[in-house]
Design a protein that fits this description.
The protein is built from 11 helices and 20 strands. With 432 residues, the chain is an alpha/beta fold. The protein folds into 2 domains: 281 residues, Zn peptidases (Aminopeptidase), CATH 3.40.630.10; 117 residues, Aminopeptidase i, Domain 2 (Roll), CATH 2.30.250. It has a 9-stranded mixed sheet, with helices on both faces. A 5-stranded mixed sheet has the order 11-12-20-19-15. Helix 7 crosses helix 8 and helix 9 crosses helix 11. The structure holds zinc ion.
Length: 432
């Protein structure tokens, strides 16, 4: 079987998904909308998990898990899980944000994750995330999306920073990354501004998880328009591929497995939160899927023993200007297909059997596979694969799609890669 994802359609849907998802909370809603349209039911975690076979999803903040028991309702049926993350490095608004410096109204920010700080300079920035608002009974989370050029972090001109090009840019995050949004004699009033946007009294705004985003839309670039440039490709490209792969797999049928996607928040800050990959969200949900179908704890552990997890996070394509930073024998070519990520120190969870499961899926989809390892004299990044592997005991493979400028506000990936990526994941979720 060859995968059925059209390159142009996939690129078009991905760019729309990226633009609609500036925060993890919005990414989860973008996936939920896509799944709802495909007949999935959204469950609250406080609801009982239905015993009837069907397509379901549940959301915990910026994380989402979706699954289908339609094809094989037997309780001990093993899972096929595709994991990814919904968060990206950015600037996050501090609790007392209003700063007044040199006649400028600014907003105090913290750095979230490990961004390329220079890429946040001189951009037109909007604001998004979740605001906790006083409700009828306690607080409720409300989504906020301001796709307007509110904020800017202005770089110093070279006339005032004579060595910037010869010695490199040095940025102190406390001092140099503070965005300005207005001018005046007194500090601005972000809380009042947010309350007005949400149409609630200022006293009803009780907390927030707000972040900045670049307003430049995702677009195709290159002579042949064979690349996609966008913010947040790491890792919304994988979240998107997982979402459309799940729908396609369920439509085609998944006998012998329960297909699952697990999209986690907080990967960029270590995953140790209530909804990160180190949390109970995945294991509790998988156990509930088994128990709701009258399975026992023994059935759950049997299901886990047969489970395979594919943990997706973007992979470094070889940058032509820095080819020597990549392992010479393992160059990753843009539009060369999905990438197995391997590290002997287990910074990636891939072992031989995990790699084999992924290769078989790519073979089934008619998609080529590449391999990535870092140079032996450079430290290796990590991702959620080793965590979900340790928590579940499942065979796990770390993989990704080729990407340039990872952690920039303007990353790039391949158009052909995205269709191949979704095809490989569909095959992984419905093994032949
Ligand atoms: Zn990532």
């Amino acid at each position: 079987m060859t995968h059925a994802f059209d390159q142009d359609d996939t690129a078009r849907s991905l760019t729309a998904y990226l633009d609609a998802s500036p925060s993890p909370f919005h990414a989860v809603e973008s996936t939920a909308a896509l799944l709802l349209a495909a007949g999935f039911t959204r469950l609250a975690e406080t609801d009982p998990t239905p015993s009837a076979p069907g397509r379901y999803m549940t959301v915990r903040g910026g994380s989402l898990i979706a699954w289908s028991t339609e094809a094989d309702p037997a309780p001990a049926t093993p899972f096929r899980v595709v994991g990814a993350h919904t968060d990206s490095p950015n600037l996050r608004i501090k609790p007392r944000p209003d700063v007044l410096r040199a006649g400028w109204q600014q907003l105090a920010v913290e750095i979230y994750g490990g961004p390329l700080l220079n890429t946040w300079l001189d951009r037109d920035l909007g604001l998004s995330g979740r605001v906790a608002v006083r409700g009828e009974s306690g607080a409720e989370g409300r989504l906020l999306l301001i796709d307007e050029p509110l904020l800017r972090v202005s770089q110093l001109a070279p006339h005032l920073d004579r060595t910037v090009n010869s010695e490199g840019l040095k940025l102190n995050p406390q001092q140099h990354l503070v965005p300005h949004w207005g001018q005046g004699e007194t500090a601005g009033d972000l809380l009042g501004f947010i309350a007005e946007r949400l149409e609630v009294p200022a006293s009803h705004v009780l907390g927030w998880d707000l972040m900045t985003h670049d307003l430049t839309p995702a677009r195709r670039i290159g002579r042949d328009r064979d690349l996609i440039a966008s913010a947040r490709l790491d890792n919304l490209a994988t979240s998107f591929a997982a979402s459309i792969a799940l729908v396609a797999a369920v439509e085609a049928g998944t006998p012998g497995v329960v297909p699952v996607i697990a999209l986690f928040d907080h990967e960029e800050v270590g995953s140790t939160t209530e909804r990160g990959a180190q949390s109970t969200f995945l294991t509790a949900t998988l156990e509930r899927i088994v128990l709701s179908r009258n399975g026992s704890r023994e059935d759950y552990l049997r299901a886990l023993a047969g489970t395979v997890i594919a943990s997706g996070d973007m992979a470094h394509a070889t940058n032509p200007n820095y080819a020597d930073r990549h392992e010479a024998g393992h160059h990753v070519q843009m539009n060369g297909g999905p990438v197995l990520k391997i590290n002997a120190q287990a910074r990636y969870a891939t072992d031989g059997l995990g790699a084999a499961a992924f290769r078989l899926a790519c073979e089934q989809a008619g998609v080529p596979v590449q391999s990535f390892v870092t140079r032996t004299d450079l430290p290796c990044g990590s991702t959620v694969g080793p965590m979900t592997s340790a928590l579940t005991g499942a065979t796990t493979v770390d993989f990704g799609a080729p990407t340039l400028s990872m952690h920039s506000t303007r990353e790039a990936c391949g158009v052909a890669d995205q269709a191949m990526y979704a095809g490989a994941l569909q095959a992984f979720l419905s093994p032949a």
